[in-house]
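Quick question: what would this complex look like in 3D?
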Amino acid sequence: MAGAAARLADVPGGRSGLPARDHAPAPGTARVAQRTGAPGTGAPGTGAPVRGTRRIGTLAAGLSTPGRLRRMLAWLILATLAWGSLAAFTAFQHTSGAGTVVSASEPLTHDALQIWQSLSDANDAAGAAVLAGALPPQTVLARYTSDINQAKRDIADAAARGAPMSEIQALQVGLTSYTDEVSRAEANDLLGFPVGAGYFRQASTQMTGQLLPAAHDLYTLEDDRLASASAQATGLPLVVVTILAGLALGYAYYRCARWLTRRTHRLLNGGLAVAGAVAALALLWLVSAYFIGRSDLLAAQSQGSTPVIALANADIAAAKAHTDEALTLIDNSGDDSYQGDFKTLQGNLGPGPGTLLAKAQSATAGSPAAGDASAAARQAQAWFTAHQAVRVADDQGQHQDAVAMVLSGAAKQAYGNLSADLGQAITADDAAFASDASSGQGAFSGLGPGIIAATLVMVAALVWGLSRRLAEYR
Amino acid sequence: MRKTAIALAALSAAAMLAGCAATGPAAAGPAARGQRAAASQRAATSKDGSARVTARTASAGSASGSAGAGSCNPYASLSPEPGGPAVTGGSFAAKIRKQGFLIAGVDQTTYHFGYLNPLDGQIEGFDIDMIKDVAAAIFGISPASSAIASRVHFKAISDVDRIKDVQDGTVDIVAHTMTVNCARQQQVDFSTIYYDASAQILVDKPAGGGTAPTLARLGQQHARVCATSGSDDLAIIARAHATPVPETYWTDCLVLLEEGQVAGIVTDNSILYGMQAQDPDTVVTGPALEAEPYGLAISKAHPDFVRFVNAVLARAVADGQWLASCRQWVASTCQRPGWPIDYVS
């Protein structure tokens, strides 16, 4: 008793809240007790426990309230920090995944796609130029030049963004030798020499056999990296664990609050209430950011990157078939290997069940490119019909008529429309991907630092709330 | 020398008369062989070439002689009716005339022999001129007139389809730098030889004016030499111990030569001159490796058409048309044909 009174007397101003009989100790006794520090010899008959026992009880954190309070505070702080770290880690994982998607993977995939498309179109334009003979139309030459320049720019950009060096070098070296051969083809064509066709055959074989597969490999590689970054941003396990841990933390707060209510006869502990509220808000923020971001990124994939790859496959196959159509006429030798390849590609393109155009149509359903994809399917049928007329004319010896159909007639119109529709579809869905991905990234913005701040606020609130209770015991 | 020549001429004349009177092919065999020996001496341009040509035609001749399908003399063809080409009733030429156009299987990528000129969209060349002469004779117009274009359907065919297309009537006649040999003579009929090419090699012009390497020298280095797949020239390259490089088209071989991936191209010098015209840094060189006499291929079902075409060719040589074409397309130094034309009735 005397010891308790002494401790109370030491505290400046004392603490209200304890029964009045604890106040007003005998000053002399208190000072003596303090000076000696010896196991208190409490006045017999007061009914209070021995001072030493009380101290041991405090150290052992047994049934003593302050001890339990301190222990509770320590564990709550630990749990809060642990949950805060987990939540912050989750937030940073998702944020960095979304960030990678938007700032690294998506531009690289876009570059790779453009390289693939530009190279394919350049070869098609070169074929049209060689077929046109000595005086190719300016539009065709301009298309070839702009495609090659676009491809070179995109290769340099992809290299700067960290595409694998071996792929980049293969593309650069191959593109140099390809452009070399096409210029020799055109130079010989200008002089009326048949060897020009030989150079173009060699260039086209290099394009379809080496360059286009290399560009396709790069695109597939970058698309896979995009998918894994996206998976990191939308993955479920971490968030589920964080939510469960958050609920457990909330439950711990609740139990501690109840214990406090019983012990201190106060309904609510201010600090614990604040900490609980902040925890709830942080968890709510995390969950909503996650679900919004996830839905945006999944939409980006389903309306963006997945249809784009299906459309690109159809586009590249159509360009290859178109070059085959030109090469049969350029070669003009009765050999039908290029026509055979055209027939194979026609079968692959469709639009029948399981074909590239059918896959593109189903992939673009619900995305901005749906209309263009359907239009492309119709144009493909028109082109194949026009191609039949070209073959009939050529096989009957009307070679010049067949060439005219391909360069400026019905076949050219149909293929041009097909190519334009597919190009527009790809652009539309590519833009949809970029915007969905960036809004997905936006959903996560500030989440990490916010969680950290919330955790610190929670810890501060706990410390404030519980130390007030602890101070009552001094 | 003169006595030998007179004796040979008398012998061959007698044999021909005997052959015409007798059952034909078997009797004409020995006479043809005798003619062949003299012909090969005149045709060959080097000792090597003549020996090879004689050996080849001799062995093939005995084979075809035993088969009884005609003598193996590339320079022999059915004799024309006297009096120039005439479209007689019921003949194949009359049928073509009624049809309105001649269908000719040609190459459209062999420079200066049969190719589509990208500058004006016209098919032209030495082979084409021969076809135009035939069409002109069928339809009674001048070969230089613009009406010829509507009278001929030029069909681009590949090397492998030449014989098949003639046999099944897809084309009426083939002019495709086609070498006459015994194996082919068993499948289709040929006109008289309208150009006697020989196989040579095309190499880069040596820097500094040295001598260009021959196939023999390239063979010693086992250098890479190009020819089209399926041609006899690959065998010639292999025999010389060079490394044969097959390609689909002749122009592909020229691309390889220009890029330095092969050291030479072996084929008929007619085709090689066309390549040299496209690349002045190359030169046709070396001895004649094989005789390549060209004939127009016609189905065996129309011997009257063969005679008609031979009459057209004879007239073209006589009135200078052939020489003009040769000088325009082959070389300005063309002379009148110096190879034998052996008519068989």
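Answer marked as accepted. The first helix of chain B runs from residue 2 to 21.
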